[in-house]
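Consortium newsletter contribution from the modelling node. Members have asked for a concrete example of what our holo predictions look like. Here is one, prepared for the zinc ion complex that several groups have been discussing at recent meetings.
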Amino acid sequence: MIVRTLAAALLIGLSTAAHAQQNQTEEMERREKVLAQLPNNAAKRIFGTVPGPANLEARAIGSFAKGCIAGATALPIDGETWQVMRLSRNRNWGHPDLIGLLEKLARRAPKEAGWPGLLVGDISQPRGGPMLTGHASHQIGLDADLWLTPMPGRRLSRDERENMSATNIVRPDWMDVEPSHYSAKHLALIRLAAREKAVTRIFVNPAIKVALCRDAGADRGWLSKVRPMWGHNYHFHIRIACPAGEASCVDQPLPQDEDGCGSELKDWLKKQYAAMHKPKPQGNGQGKPKPPPKPWTLDDLPDECRQVAVSK
Ligand SMILES: [Zn+2]
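And here is the predicted structure:
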């Protein structure tokens, strides 16, 4: 039953969330499979294999799910209060504004949220752009995934960072959090991030938003930035606004000014429940699967991404 539920979940777009948990072997296999099917000029191949950043002035180009980044910097893999996970993916790159914000959040988390430190998941590739595996967004260096597992009080080995699993804090029925895995510190950390002015959106599973709505108390303004989204039960996702003065960056309007704990959240829970209980498609000869969409080339991305792609 669990396998079946998971299979259904994967079919409806939770694959990105599951992907966040994949260990190094699973990730490599998936990556090779995608590469084998992509034409040479595919944007995913170009941006997914380039080892380092474009040595240009820092600039986010395009939109969160269609763009690239010039002059990205890497979050150091170790800080006093953070550790970068899944190092082989080389996705700890971002806009300097985002990297600065993550470092600041990591520094404040222990004292202000009782959270010992951040385990940092995917940020962006060295030049952003579409990825070979996982994530529709994370393309312009302004999105970052943070694990819902507190940082342990020791340095993790490279091997642990590749293969250790994060904690799923959602209850098996996907309607609320799992009390043995969720604590007030999760709320405190997400609230600390949401109160940062630059942060415009935080994505969490609808079941997590249920808990945040219940436990937030009287001060609820920050909740409007916390949006329900598929997956996001092992990690949460932080998005910051386009940096000031970067005309090439396409921003999103801020979420409307309410806590989002009413009908929108109920609809999400219903939608998620229905997706989990959708019967598995039977048989295999009935109706051919839709051919996959044509992979993007550089022509599909903003013009400036061509320079980012070829820059030394
Ligand atoms: Zn994410």
